[in-house]
Every structure is written in C-alpha cells, then in structure tokens.
Design a protein that fits this description.
Radius of gyration: 17 Å
Order of helices and strands: HEHEHHEHEHEHEHEHEH
Number of domains: 1
CATH topology: TIM Barrel
Amino acid sequence: MIGEIIKEITSELPSGTRLVAVSKFHPCEAIIEAWQAGQKLFGENRPQELEKKMKELPEELLKDVSFHFLGHLQTNKLKMVLPYVSMVQSIDTVHLLDEVNKWCLKNGKVMDVLLEMHIGAEETKQGFYEEEILDVMFNADKYRGVRICGLMGMASHTDDEEAVAADFQRIKNHFDYIKDTFPENKDFKELSIGMSEDYKIALNYGATFIRVGSKIFGPRVY
C-alpha cells in the first residue's frame, strides 16, 4: 500500500520536484517498506525519534537514502540531528543558523539548509519574515559550515484553497526575488512547499520539495 501511494504521488511530480516522505511518528518498518518501493528521501521532525531510528534502521538502507530534518530544532539537540541528515529544512532563527554553522565547522561538515519563511496566518508559526531573510542573505558569506539552499514554508491551515495558493505565491515571489538579488549564489535553488493536503497546489508554484507524510503512511502510530 505504501509503495502504491508513493508511485502515485511521484507520477504526478514534474521534473525537478522531489518527494520527501515524512516518516515522523511511524516505525522503521514503514520506512523500510517505502525504501523497498524505491523511495530514497525521508523527513523527520523530532530529534530523539530521528536518533533512535538511525540506530535501528538497517545499514544497507542508511547507505542508500537521505534524511532531511523538518521540525523545530533546539540548539541543545543539534548532536541528535546533524550527524544523520543531509539537509535541515527548518532554520527559523539567526541564532539557530549560527549554532548549526558553529557545530558544522567544529565537526568538519557542511550542512545544506533552508530558511523557514513565516507565511501562514497563525502568529504561532516559526520562521523568518521577508526582510529578515534578506538580511541573512546579505551576510551569507560568513557561514562557512552551511549552504543556504533556498526557502521552506507552510501555508495557513485552512480549507480555503485560494488562501493556500496566496501563501505559496508569497513565498515563491520572495524566493524569486532572492535568486534575482543574489545571482552569484548558485546553491539557492530549492523551494520546499506543500504537504499531504496541499502539495498539488504547491506544484503550481515551483515546489522543488514536497513533504508528504499522512497520505503515504496513514495516521500517526506513536
């Protein structure tokens, strides 16, 4: 079943868009099933859960797939995440960016990251506003331990498809503005928007990553 859904989703994706199978709250067996169906990119949201899975998943799988971290990351939990992932999509403050950069410099690693843009209507959502992203990009050269590869965002939680589309349009506009303003930054090319309920809308706005969990794996297991 998991494999069939993955094939259905990937068949809808345009060239240049990748599926992140969000495996949070699901056991290693579900990840193995998705991998056996050909899925090579997974996303996790909780440091403790990620670290536990890294110790339990078969070595053959870990050599063949990549993990992205998608959730809010506290700076005291970097060591649970950064050794295991190829990208952190959820850099939501300058402080976190600074600390990830320091950790990577200390540990001889360069981490791909996305800046999380605050686009949803809920004030509780984390992330940068447009002008804050611009400030970070003006100072991007000082970060030697990270590569700023693009933006990530979540649309407002609503059934109003026009409101969701407007959120995605806003982040796409700023993504394009950053690319035009900093053409020398060839790493800045990823736009991570769209989840299980709205990824089809996100595809209309240039998503290079979609993050799909419940549609693939079903309701949370733990």
